[in-house]
């Protein structure tokens, strides 16, 4: 570590006492019971439920009133955490919210925010255990047709690592004015008796409104985004107001994609969604076959956001000296990742596809 990083190190307090009152070991959140559990003596305790109804789930936050909107650079700042169990000092990246002490193994749950970052206001707790994640992985890899049989038999995931990753969700009332051209196809027979399709074109314009609810944007740059998309969706309605107890025993990370950049990404994705919705509206209203030259402008009103921590199991397996990584959705068990491909199976699939196409073409020509 550089001298500058050492100078930037901050001492961080723990948010709650993660010590078992029975045997003094570290307690952790148990997805199977939804309680804090000691893995050594079996002590269990429930996580306190807020009395106020509005404090039980993550609340929508006013986007325009958010003070901290910038990105946060992973690894630039550091912080020092003093373990309450063994007094060891450990240097962490400032984005980390939870980890375990490398000296005694006790859970370190740190304060959820720094002076220049927003605090999470909600968490979707783990509902799938690491054992269940392994079962979902076995079903997933057995269902991959192009994966060699030997890989399906031998693939054993390494130890699972549970991690809470940061996400933004955005709500917005959208109002769009649009103009476009739509076409209706008709079949025309020429003087030689041959038929062809012609399209009659018309102009249209209109107004479209839609409420966008909980549009999800990843707030981390550390993990494979394509892989993360494969394990979506999450059950965002089943969230709880953030408590450090929920992240006890798991890794967890602050956002590195800031609120403003998250909203910019959300707006782009919402624009694509609205393009498809307005096109469908024009086709349905005008009994049209095609839509072209669609142009629209959108106003976003009453924009709100949530900063959620979502649960993911990380693991990998090895096949022929190559490591394949995968993720499991900690709520649903949905799996996404990489797996070996059998060239023989791909070749067989291509040959079968070509044979089917040839047969269809043959019967079509015979008719």
From TrEMBL:
Gene3D superfamilies: RNA polymerase ii, chain L. The chain crosses the membrane at residues 344-364. This is TFIIB-type zinc ribbon-containing protein. It comes from Lysinibacillus irui. Keywords: Membrane, Transmembrane, Transmembrane helix. It comes from the Bacteria.
């Amino acid at each position: 570590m550089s001298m500058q990083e050492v100078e930037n190190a901050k001492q961080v307090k723990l948010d709650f006492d993660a010590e078992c009152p029975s045997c003094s070991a570290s307690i952790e959140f148990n997805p199977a019971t939804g309680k804090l559990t000691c893995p050594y003596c079996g002590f269990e305790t429930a996580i306190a439920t807020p009395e106020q109804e509005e404090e039980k789930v993550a609340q929508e936050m006013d986007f325009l009133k958010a003070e901290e909107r910038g990105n946060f650079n992973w690894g630039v700042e550091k912080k020092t955490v003093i373990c309450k169990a063994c007094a060891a000092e450990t240097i962490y990246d400032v984005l980390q919210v939870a980890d375990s002490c490398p000296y005694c193994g006790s859970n370190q749950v740190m304060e959820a925010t720094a002076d220049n970052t927003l605090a999470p206001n909600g968490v979707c707790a783990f509902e799938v255990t690491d054992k269940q994640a392994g079962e979902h992985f076995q079903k997933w890899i057995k269902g991959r047709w192009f994966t060699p049989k030997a890989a399906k038999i031998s693939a054993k995931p390494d130890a699972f690592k549970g991690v809470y990753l940061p996400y933004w969700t955005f709500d917005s009332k959208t109002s769009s004015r649009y103009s476009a051209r739509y076409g209706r196809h008709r079949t025309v027979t020429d003087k030689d008796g041959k038929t062809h399709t012609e399209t009659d074109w018309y102009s249209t314009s209109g107004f479209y409104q839609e409420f966008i609810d909980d549009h999800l944007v990843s707030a981390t740059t550390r993990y494979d985004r394509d892989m993360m998309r494969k394990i979506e969706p999450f059950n965002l309605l089943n969230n709880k107001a953030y408590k450090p107890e929920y992240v006890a025993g798991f890794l967890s990370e602050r956002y590195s994609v800031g609120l403003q950049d998250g909203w910019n990404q959300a707006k782009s994705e919402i624009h694509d969604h609205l393009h498809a919705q307005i096109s469908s509206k024009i086709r349905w209203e005008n009994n049209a076959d095609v839509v072209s030259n669609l142009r629209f402008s959108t106003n976003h009103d009453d924009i709100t956001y949530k900063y959620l921590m979502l649960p993911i199991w990380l693991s990998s397996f090895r096949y022929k000296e190559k490591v394949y990584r995968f993720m499991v959705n900690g709520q649903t068990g949905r799996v996404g990742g990489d797996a070996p491909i059998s060239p023989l199976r791909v070749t067989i699939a291509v040959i079968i596809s070509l044979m089917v196409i040839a047969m269809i073409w043959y019967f079509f020509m015979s008719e």
